[in-house]
């Protein structure tokens, strides 16, 4: 027979076992926590090691600058934070260079004599020269960009080095590529374009999506509308374009020259004809000079300072004035069909949705030809535009200057060929008729004068 004590012990054994298990689990968790505390994650360990590698001079700087809230009031009324996160700086590409690599002009005790700074913009302009000491190639490319051109023309919004690269946290190009942070930087200024691009065939393909720099470059960013900048970028990837278009498109080369890619590959876009000023046979658009707004001045003068668009006569007068004011070559217009906004230029659709119907453009009253502008590249490469009436496209006075936009046989629509021949014939015949009438009238006047002189002599 089992005793009462033995029976009680047997009954309490499950409870005792549970208590022991709980103690063991608690100890295990305790040891695990201690182990985790003693052995930080690889990333944390790397960050700690980087901070430890900072020089004694940098650590001395961080004794003050590691404090989180340090706003400095600038003369402009702006606040500039002087705080620097030690871990982020140590892990940045500049961590190994040290503070004095960029801040070489500071002396010991500079905190007792605060430096006067006009504005955040003024400081960024000043520090750009420091960037050039190490990043000569990048700064040289930047100096040739549309962003730098905007700075030179006085823009206070054009990006400087520190607008895209935080000097205290900038990481390597490899790390930036992995983080895919570039669109975030660009959309600070180009938010509308960034949103449009994200929905396009190029921006909605996940990991294979293009980045801004793939077409616009990183530092040497050019004005997209200038000359054939963007067409060249498209063809750098789509190398087979000329051959594939020639399979179905009449006069494919002329179409590719006179029509921007988005004009057909953004099917829902609104389009316009842009007549761009070129100097004779020069490969690039004519450019207005800094401080000499010749295009705007002449366009307004030719238009009588009116609010409407340039008509054919006004456009002809403007071209004549350009050619009389010291242009090296004869100024001509080259037409291009394009979309009307930068957002539309980035909304490229899948190839299957591209416009292939000739009738979209080559029909009477086509919407693509209802809006016309005349443009010249500004000092920064961006276009200066002036509206023109759609009548300039078929006017006798301007048709001779609109080269490269339409040619006989460029479409399957014979009526257009006939109309163009008639316009060209009129362009030749009317001046000829005018000259003939002028000569005939001159002869008639001479005869009348001679007869009158003879009568006067006879009367004497």
TrEMBL record:
TM regions (residue ranges): 418-437
The protein's matches in Pfam families, at most eight in alphabetical order, are given as: Paired_CXXCH_1
Which residues belong to the signal peptide in this entry?
1-38
Determine if Nucleotidyltransferase is one of this entry's keywords: no
Where the record annotates domain Doubled CXXCH motif, the positions are: 161-192
Q: Which UniProt keywords apply?
A: Membrane, Signal, Transmembrane, Transmembrane helix
Q: What is this protein called?
A: Doubled CXXCH motif domain-containing protein
